[in-house]
Amino acid sequence: MRVILMTNEELVVLYQHGDKKALDKLLENNDKLIYKVASKFYSDKTSSIEFDDLLQEGRIGFILACSKYDIEYIKKTKFITYAFYWIYQKIHRFITTHNTNEEISLNTPVSEENQDELINSIESHSNEIKDREEELYLSELRLELEAVMDKHNTLNEREILKLYYGWDTDELSIDQIADIFETSSSEVKNIKARAIRKLRNSMWFKKVYQMRYEEDITFMRVLRNLDYGISI
C-alpha cells in the first residue's frame, strides 16, 4: 500500500479544520526543529531553567503557529519559517521571565563553536539606530527591498536572506539555516549567493546604491541594518 506523505501546510489545514491527529503528525515531523531552537538558548547561564521546560515552551509556540498560520502565507512564507519565529519568540520570552542566573544576551548563540557569530552579532548591534528620521528611512527602504525580493527572488531565496540577515529574529548562521531546511550548508550558501546576485542586478539596487554611494553605505550594509526595530 502506497503511503501518502503530506506537507506541513496540508497538515496545518487539516488541523485548523478540527483534525487533532494532524497536530500530532506536525509535532512528530517538526520536533527536531523545536529541539534545535531550544538547544540554541540552553547554556550554563540558563541552567536555572530545565531544558524540558524550554522544549515545552517551544512546542507551545509551534502549536500557536499551527493555529495562526494562514495558508495564503505560503506565497510569502513557508510554514516551517513561520513556525520557527513562534518557537523562537516563545522560548525567548520564557527565559526572559524565568531565568534567575546572571543576565545574558539571548540574541546570540553562546556555545563555543559559535564564538565568531556571537562577536559579529554584538558588533552589528552595537551601533543601534537612535535617530528617528534614519529609522523611518530604513523602514521605507525595507518595504522597497521586500517588494524587489518578491519580484526577483524565489520563496526559498527570500526566506534564507531574511533568516541570515536577522529579519524578525537574530541573524542565523548558514549551518543553522541548513538545519531548519534540512539541507546542506553548501546548498544554503549557493541559494544565498544566487539571491544576492539577483538583487544586485535589479534596477532597484543600482538606483539605491548610486543614490547612497557618497555616504559610503553599500547595499550589504543597508540590508544588514534593516532589522533594527522594524518588523515585517
Automatic annotation (TrEMBL):
Segments forming a coiled coil: 115-158
UniProt domain RNA polymerase sigma-70 region: residue ranges: 27-98, 156-201
Protein name: Sigma factor
GO MF annotation terms: DNA binding; sigma factor activity
Pfam families according to UniProt: Sigma70_r2, Sigma70_r4
BP term (GO), one: DNA-templated transcription initiation
InterPro entries: RNA_pol_sigma-70_dom, RNA_pol_sigma70, RNA_pol_sigma70_r2, RNA_pol_sigma70_r4, RNA_pol_sigma_r2, RNA_pol_sigma_r3/r4-like, Sigma-70_RNA_pol_init_factors, WH-like_DNA-bd_sf
Keywords of the record: Coiled coil, DNA-binding, Sigma factor, Transcription, Transcription regulation
Domain of life from the UniProt record: Bacteria
